[in-house]
Amino acid sequence: MTGLAQSTVSRICDGASLRRVDKCQQALHGLGAQTAIENLALTSLDEEALNRVHWLVNQAGRVDASSVNAFAQILAAHRRLDDVVGAQALVELTRAQARTATMLADQARGPHAHALCLVAAEWVQFDGWLHASTGRFKTALPLLDQAEAAAQELNAPTLLAQARNFRAYIHRRRGDVPGLVRHFRAAYTTAGAHPAQRVGDAIQAAHGHALLGERDQARRLLEEASALAETAEGMAPPRTAYWLTPTFQHLSLGLAHLGLGEKDVAADRLRTGLDGLPPDQQNADWTKEYRQALSQARR
Questions:
Q1: 241 Cβ partners below 8 Å, 6+ apart?
Q2: What is the pTM of this model?
Q3: Separation between Cα atoms, residue 219 and residue 178, nearest integer Å
Q4: How far apart, in whole angstroms, are the C-alpha atoms of residue 18 and residue 7?
Q5: 274, 251 in Cβ contact below 8 A?
Q6: Contact, 237 vs 198, CB < 8 A?
Q7: CB-based contact 206:225 (threshold 8 Å)
Q8: What is the CA radius of gyration of the chain?
Q9: Which candidate, 6, 44, 48, 219, has a CA 20 to 30 Å from the CA of 74?
Q10: Is the dihedral of CA 153, 159, 160, 163 positive or negative?
């Protein structure tokens, strides 16, 4: 599928890097990631951008805006590829990238150090997400602790709310409903979080209350989410949570109404959300949870 030699594939699986951009593009295309490549304009990561990253790695403590931007572009590419090729294909590579980013951030000095630290915190958070998505919860939780602490230190509320959201997701995957409610509420009440984040977190906390039989609390949170959605209308979602569109919120609403036993409403919300996802997210790993919920709502 990748067009690469078996020995090359084996080395990549063992953690080696594929350094030639043309070979990376060839492999991704063979794996079915062409939509993500086009959407990301991955080819914009030209030799100059990649050279900036190499320069940053080799110049301990020195950082400039171009290097930070290049590192952020690579992270954005990884995020979008997760939607297409799945977390399992990226988890080991991302772990190495997150460690490198953290090392560079620890050494960084000067006016662009804060920006690099933000990118590094996002790398760690994404690393935590990939481990959570693949069921490696024991590894994911310390990474999300690290990302949360960094977000607090850097005064980055969108990153902080997202780290709490991912932790809540782990509790949902584990079937720990009280933990689900506690952490989605923590994300919802994060001061300075983006309105789109707060909408999603309120809805998902409502889902947890519904599962606990606390219908009044669930409906109250859904009303708050509806009011917040009006505030968020027309606003672009935060860069670090690009998926939080009105379409995506239908998926969370579907889970909440399913928890309330309102199967017809749940099925309508879930179908609307799934049908409205962009092409590169249609078959993402994370959609499986919503497709299973849709099947349950239709029974």
A1: 158, 162, 194, 196, 197
A2: 0.82
A3: 17
A4: 12
A5: yes
A6: no
A7: yes
A8: 20
A9: 6
A10: negative
